[in-house]
Amino acid sequence: MKVEGLHGFDLSPPEARRLQEELATRVVAGPALDHSGVRHVAGADVSTQGNLAYATVVVLEFPGLSLVEVRGFEAPLRFPYVPGLLSFRELPSVVGALEKVETAVDALILDAQGLAHPRRMGLASHLGTFLDVPTVGCAKSRLVGSFEEPGREKGSATDLVHRGEVVGRVLRTREAVSPVYVSVGSGIDLASSVALVLACCTRYRLPETTRQAHNAANRLRRGEEPGGSMRLL
């Protein structure tokens, strides 16, 4: 998978915030995603230890969600831990893993925020501006905004609102479990983002894309998958 025109990362936090504001103008919130045309969906996650980031990307067949490919990449953590700027810390390793992917991917779900971010530039939006693939943020916790608690049943969702703008949906993916926070990354609309996340959820709170990428990243960090790279034929 190609990541085109990515900027450098030798930035101070104030420079990074200014770049986020500039990149936010490039986010495309739409169009709708036709699930009938989706053949493969990918997920990405990052595990850290010391000064290293271990990123993995998994590619699943859709809608069956069987594993097709998993790729890993480790890179030094060169950007400090600053709330709201975590994408600058994690992107180099995620991009390294993505660039190993051989399967044609129709959508990418990240364990991250998209537009549900103070400057509308979470990792899913940040990365999405450099990809020709729709990206979705599906985070385990809220970064910004307020919402009403969704119903207890699977599929119940309410708006996540920040500064008077709907920036995401708070989605119940399993009955009576904590919701996830879905927001547009880029190249897809919010309704399609929610529908894709739900379609990727089976018996667990998190979509299979995130769950399998998370497990693979932890295995890579522990040295159980050297290189973290495998393609299943």
Features:
9-stranded mixed β-sheet, 233 residues, alpha+beta, archaeoglobus fulgidus dsm 4304 fold, 5 helices, 24% helix
Write structural notes for this entry.
- It is a single chain.
- The protein has 233 residues and is an alpha+beta fold.
- The protein has a single domain (13-222), classed as archaeoglobus fulgidus dsm 4304 superfamily (archaeoglobus fulgidus dsm 4304 fold), CATH 3.30.2170.10.
- 24% of the residues lie in helices and 26% in strands.
- The chain has five helices and nine strands, in the order H-E-E-E-H-E-H-E-E-E-E-H-H-E.
- The chain has helices spanning 13-24, 86-98, 123-128, 190-199, 208-221, and strands at residues 40-49, 52-61, 67-76, 107-110, 135-139, 157-162, 165-171, 180-186, 230-231.
- It has a nine-stranded mixed beta sheet with strand order 6-7-8-5-4-1-2-3-9, with helices on both faces.
- Strand 4, helix 3 and strand 5 (135-139) form a beta-alpha-beta unit.
- It is globular and about 45 Å long.
- The relative contact order is 0.20.
- The model has no long low-confidence stretch (mean pLDDT 94).
Count up the helices. 5
Instruction: Please report the distance between the alpha carbons of the first and last residues.
Output: 18 Å
| Radius of gyration based on Cα positions | 16 Å
Mean pLDDT: 94
CATH class call:
Alpha Beta
Percent range of helical residues: 10-25%
The main pleated sheet reads as: 9 strands, mixed
Structural class, please?
alpha+beta
* CATH architecture group name: 2-Layer Sandwich
Number of strands: 9
CATH topology: archaeoglobus fulgidus dsm 4304 fold
What is the global morphology? globular
How many independent structural domains?
A: 1
CATH level-4 homologous superfamily: archaeoglobus fulgidus dsm 4304 superfamily
